Amino acid sequence: MIDIRFVLVDPSHPGNIGAAARAMKNMALERLVLVRPRQYPHAEATARASGAESVLSSARVVGTVAEALADCGFIAATTSRDRDQNFRVLDVRDAAPRLVEEARRGPVAVLFGAERTGLTNEDLESSHALVRIPADRAYASLNLAMAVQIVSYELYLARGQPCAAGMKDASGAAVPLATALEMERLYAHLAQVMDEVGFRDRTQSGTNLMGRIRRFLQRAQLDQNEANIVRGLLTAVQNRRRAAGRGGRE
């Protein structure tokens, strides 16, 4: 079974959790992760699951989005809002084959936001793409369980179609994307080196640079080998500076 996880962030209504589990079960998806659910476990969740108790019983409950995504490669986030954040935006029908393709390389996550507020910009930091479900612009906000059902359905259709091969290494094996945890380590390493060489945000607010760097590297969708190359480069810069410092040169 390919590993596509649905991550519900701050779900407030237990009925939506149960209905989401049922939608997933209908479309042969089993992996559900709940981030800070307001009420769970709950009798209404079980009732609305209506036969999909296996999805509920195996659901993982975590305290942060980072914990939910730590070992995932490709990460997509659903949204109904316009966001001027340089994210790649895919229609759900176009996104589904890509999600299936990436799941053959490693674990994939699809993020769904809270019923009233959706996903925050912070929740989106690890996402490689946003997934939009086409709807009437006058009323484009879908119920959480409805959104899960539509994405599940498109994934079910996509899994029945041949997918393009993923990136291969020299041996011909698919190379997994760098996980969210590996990317966080890369960003921390990059921030350290930027500080060491005095490369700082020159914008008026002084807070945009790392966010922009994160977004263009997320769009690049680094695999594990590529992330290691970048970190190796950063380590080489640090070693060269230390050697220069010992020799009295900068």
Molecular shape: elongated
What's the CATH class label of the largest domain? Answer: Alpha Beta
Distance between the termini: 54 Å
What portion of the residues fall into strands of 2 or more residues?
A: 5-15%
CATH superfamily of the largest domain: SPOUT methyltransferase, trefoil knot domain
Summarize the structure.
By secondary structure, the chain is of the alpha/beta class.
Describe the structure in your own words.
- This protein is an alpha/beta fold and 250 residues long.
- It folds into two domains: 156 residues, SPOUT methyltransferase, trefoil knot domain (Alpha/beta knot), CATH 3.40.1280.10; 67 residues, Helicase, Ruva Protein, domain 3.
- Helix content is 44%, strand content 12%.
- It has nine helices and seven strands, in the order E-H-E-H-H-E-H-E-E-H-E-E-H-H-H-H.
- The chain has a seven-stranded parallel β-sheet with strand order 3-2-1-6-4-7-5.
- It is elongated.
- The mean pLDDT is 91.
